[in-house]
Amino acid sequence: MKNNNDGTAVALTRPPLAPSRETDIPDYLQRVYWWAYLHPNAVRLFEREWLVNLILWGNFARLRDAALAEFGDHIDQQMLQIACVYGDFTQRIATRLQGEGTLDIVDVAPIQLDNLRRKLPPHPAVRLHLQDASALHFPDAHFDSTLLFFLLHEQPAAVRRATLAEALRVTRPGGKIVIVDYHRPRRSHPLHFPMQLILRTLEPFAIDLWQHEVQDYLPPELASTLRIDKQTYFGGLYQKLVISR
Ligand SMILES: C[S@@+](CC[C@H](N)C(=O)[O-])C[C@H]1O[C@@H](n2cnc3c(N)ncnc32)[C@H](O)[C@@H]1O
User: I need a labelling partner for 188 at 20 to 30 A (CA). Which of 23, 24, 64, 139 fits?
Assistant: First the structure.
């Protein structure tokens, strides 16, 4: 039992696994991340920017702004955000939309889309979709740019590969994919061992991003045709990749 900051108690008891055929919510999300994204009390608990910022060791705004900087102050392109993010991330993108600019957001969890709907002021150019990142419903080359903020580390390797292949498929040649996620920090980083322990315990697939480059999960036939710019943050614990098609 945890206490909300409004004083109400929040119970985080693991709900029974729903059959995935009924919900289409991937197994890994139900088994590993129910407490972060699926339980109604999880959404109530984590939808606090200070808490997300704490989890990112004070780097939320820096990483959010590093991602947003890739799209500029005025977004007049067709943009896709793959997976919801706690905090004001999507609202900030929406306020930058101009002219022909549109923003489509997909998430596989209805509760996350409902939460985002509550946070977002109605906007004619913003659309929310219930879709799995590893099997998107959009046509090829539909978007100018695609954004993935801390999604890949949550996915098992096969789903991560499929998600990246889909992001590439729906982003037009000449467009770009922006990824922000975990990265292996240098060994002398004071958080190297604590973070290893935290991730191994709570986010078991995240260690993949310490042991491999994101490039290792791209379709091999495309990898050599892409330009990839990588920047690391906070002693290497986080990375931003900009993949140009
Ligand atoms: C983007 S990630 C983590 C973001 C970050 N930790 C934050 O501050 O919110 C979390 C979201 O990814 C979604 N998600 C996970 N796997 C997905 C998938 N295969 N397809 C679509 N959405 C997915 C979850 O439902 C959740 O809303």
Answer: 64
108 lines ligand 1 (CB under 6 A): yes
Q: Is the CB of 107 under 6 A from ligand 1?
A: yes
Stated pTM of the model: 0.90
Q: Which among 49, 62, 55 has a CA at the least distance from the CA of 234?
A: 62
Q: What one-letter code names the amino acid at 41?
A: N
For residue 1, give both structure tokens.
């039992």
Per the listing, tokens 């978007």 go with: 143
pLDDT in tens, 53-91: 999 999 999 999 999 999 999 999 999 999 999 999 999
Q: Whose CA is nearest to atom 14 of ligand 1?
A: 83
For the Cβ of 105 lying below 6 angstroms from any atom of ligand 1, the answer is no
CB 155 within 8 A of CB 163: yes
**13-18, long-range: CB within 8 Å, 24+ apart, which pairs?**
14/39, 15/39
